[in-house]
Amino acid sequence: MDRSFLFLLASARPGGNSELLARAAAEQLPAATERRWLDLARLALPDFVDTRHAETPWPEQENEETLRQAKWLSTPDPGFRAAMAGRALWGVTAMAHREEAVARPLELTLHHSAAYMGMNFGGVLLGNGTRPGQVLDDERAIVRAKTFFAGEPRPARFPEEGRAAGRSRSPEPAAQSLSP
């Protein structure tokens, strides 16, 4: 199966620590793997307005089509969720705090977003760094980056889906994620 990756950069700092860590992980992908990088700070986008229940639709804005084509921005097409089902979501971020447990809310948000969309979830690659480039000194993060995309992401499920089947199941982070 051919794999392709969309890296959606959401940092205000170009070349920031999260981007550096994501690029370190992307370097480990096979050469033939398609990689697309979109930097939200470089795309002029208006503030998001939720118009799902509005009388009139939100007018199309510049660069929204770029994100729609990347299957990221909500679209009026009711097939969006179905198109995302079966795809995989990973998170990569750098943080200032050294205790990785403080990133658990981020991991759960991404996991539950993937579960809602019927996606697989590959976990969150965390690095430590505040000053520009500092994440590259985080040896644990760089080691994890080398294998982060190597494993198969598992289907994301809400905890109640496991209980409905007669057993309790919480989101299971990838082996590279939030390890002690």
Q: How would you characterize the overall build of this protein?
A:
It is built from six helices and five strands; from the N terminus they run E-H-E-H-H-E-H-E-H-E-H. Mean pLDDT is 84; it is low at 167-180. By secondary structure, the chain is an alpha/beta fold. The strands form two sheets. Strands 3-4-5 form a three-stranded mixed beta sheet, with helices on both faces. The chain is 27% helix and 17% strand.
Secondary structure topology:
Elements: E1 4-9, H1 17-26, E2 34-39, H2 64-69, H3 80-84, E3 88-95, H4 104-117, E4 120-128, H5 139-145, E5 154-155, H6 159-164
Parallel strand pairs: 1-2, 3-4
Antiparallel strand pairs: 4-5
Widest beta sheet: strand line-up: 3-4-5
Work out the helix count.
6
Provide the helix percentage. Answer: 25-40%
Q: Span from first to last CA? A: 33 Å
Low-confidence stretches: 167-180
Order of helices and strands: EHEHHEHEHEH
